[in-house]
């Protein structure tokens, strides 16, 4: 695959016209699954050079950014003025374009939604090099086909975003020990729907036993002068509360808070709908029986989804399992896990997937036919593709 790194819209348009019928894949920092930003035959466009923050009003929280700016760079600028990204993914290494294309989410999904909820408009270039502005008000079908659309409707160039203002620069972090899956579910349900919730995630290594970390913003309160970063407000056997730096609280993976060596592992990321909570226990039981235990598991509560047909979140639970690559019996075991997920009416995360096939995607994403219809209007020549899209039948 040839790879180019354009710096201006005109260079991208020239590439599209020069390549003519050649297929194109767009990439950012490569934090999603490799199949989503690679293409065996075609041309790759690396948009990390389009990384400008064009406008940022810290008072209103409105921002206009290029697709290649990283979430980290945007968060740093925003936090200086008392704003944060409303959606808090574990890592800030990805780009704004990638966050839109995968409709990323964080531990505050029930209260904030996914990234697409915060996008006001998108400037999208089609295969002919023409730029169109999409918004949920003026072009709802095309807008929501692009959000979570894995870069298959066109090239995201710029976006308007709505940031969130916060009262205090130091959220309170609460850590609670959970000794069972039932307790983990209970704790997440109690924390997830608070309007002040910044992040609620259970980190575990043994079938639901582990630690739940939650961060809450203290609105309208000033910190005492004696406050110290990391200062514990109260200590008990199963609960700890302490002040945390804003970046650590919102994105724990950025500062080594996630499991060491997380990147490079085989990741299985699924959503289980409400009413099928017992599927979580069945998955852990299956892994235990097969002796294929993950080195790290995260469990998060999901709230209402959005109109994007290929968006991953649905009301229920997000379960991420991370395994060492090459573990004996892993492919067969994960196939059994997929069957449980499908039986429960759940789905796998397309942005993290490396094995799902076309029938599986069709079963897990009932909005796929409608998405295909809109995509065919936007890209009738099927110019935009990826190895993921070809394997899963998103692009024939």
Describe this structure in words.
This protein is of the alpha+beta class and 396 residues long. It has helices spanning 9-19, 71-80, 96-102, 109-112, 140-146, 181-192, 246-250, 278-290, 330-343, 358-364, 368-378, 387-392; strands spanning 2-4, 24-27, 43-46, 53-57, 62-66, 83-84, 119-125, 131-134, 155-162, 164-165, 172-178, 197-206, 209-216, 232-235, 239-243, 266-273, 296-302, 316-323, 347-348. The strands form 4 sheets. A 9-stranded antiparallel β-sheet has the order 14-15-11-13-12-17-18-16-19. A 5-stranded antiparallel β-sheet has the order 4-5-9-7-8. The relative contact order is 0.15.
Features:
single chain, 396 residues, alpha+beta, Uridine Diphospho-n-acetylenolpyruvylglucosamine Reductase, domain 3
User: Which strand order does the major sheet show?
Assistant: 14-15-11-13-12-17-18-16-19
* Extended strand count: 19
Described by the principal axes of the CA atoms, the overall outline is globular
For the terminal residues, how far apart are their CA atoms?
A: 19 Å
Q: What is the share of helical residues?
A: 25-40%
- Mean of the pLDDT scores? 83
User: What is the CATH domain class of one domain?
Assistant: Alpha Beta
In terms of DSSP E residues, the strand content is 25-35%
Topology-level CATH name of one domain: Uridine Diphospho-n-acetylenolpyruvylglucosamine Reductase, domain 3
Please state the structural category: alpha+beta
Radius of gyration: 21 Å
The CATH architecture category of one domain equals: 2-Layer Sandwich
Q: Which regions have little confidence, pLDDT < 50, spanning 5+ residues?
A: 220-262
């Amino acid at each position: 695959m040839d790879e180019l790194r354009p710096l201006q819209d005109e260079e991208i348009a020239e590439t599209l016209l020069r390549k003519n019928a050649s297929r194109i894949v767009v990439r950012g920092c490569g934090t999603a699954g490799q199949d989503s930003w690679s293409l065996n035959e075609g041309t790759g466009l690396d948009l990390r050079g389009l990384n400008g923050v064009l406008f940022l009003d810290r008072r209103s929280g409105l921002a206009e950014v290029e697709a290649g700016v990283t979430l980290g760079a945007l968060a740093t600028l925003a936090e200086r003025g008392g704003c944060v990204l409303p959606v808090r993914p574990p890592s800030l290494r990805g780009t704004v374009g990638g966050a839109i294309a995968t409709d990323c989410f964080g531990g505050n999904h029930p209260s904030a939604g996914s990234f697409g909820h915060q996008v006001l408009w998108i400037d999208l270039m089609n295969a002919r090099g023409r730029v169109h502005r999409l918004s949920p008000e003026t072009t709802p079908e095309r807008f929501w086909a692009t959000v979570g659309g894995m870069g298959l409707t066109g090239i995201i160039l710029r976006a308007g975003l709505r940031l969130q203002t916060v009262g205090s620069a130091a959220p309170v972090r609460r850590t609670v020990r959970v000794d069972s899956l039932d307790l983990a579910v209970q704790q997440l349900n109690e924390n997830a729907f608070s309007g002040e919730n910044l992040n609620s995630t259970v980190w575990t290594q043994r079938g639901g036993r582990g630690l739940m970390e939650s961060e809450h913003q203290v609105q309208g309160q000033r910190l005492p002068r004696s406050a110290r970063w990391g200062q514990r407000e109260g200590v008990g056997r199963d609960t700890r509360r302490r002040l945390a730096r804003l970046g650590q609280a919102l994105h724990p993976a950025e500062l080594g808070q996630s499991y060491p060596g997380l990147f490079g592992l085989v990741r299985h990321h699924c959503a289980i709908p409400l009413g099928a909570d017992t599927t979580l226990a069945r998955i852990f039981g299956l892994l235990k029986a097969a002796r294929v235990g993950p080195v790290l598991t995260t469990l998060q509560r999901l709230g209402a989804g959005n109109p994007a047909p290929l968006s991953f979140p649905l009301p229920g639970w997000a379960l991420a399992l991370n395994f060492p690559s090459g573990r004996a019996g892993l492919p067969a075991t994960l196939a059994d896990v997929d069957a449980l997920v499908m039986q429960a009416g759940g789905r796998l995360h397309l942005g993290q997937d490396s094995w799902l096939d076309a029938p599986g995607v069709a079963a897990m994403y009932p909005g796929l036919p409608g998405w295909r219809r809109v995509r065919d209007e936007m890209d009738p020549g099927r110019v935009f593709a990826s190895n993921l899209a070809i394997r899963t039948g998103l692009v024939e």
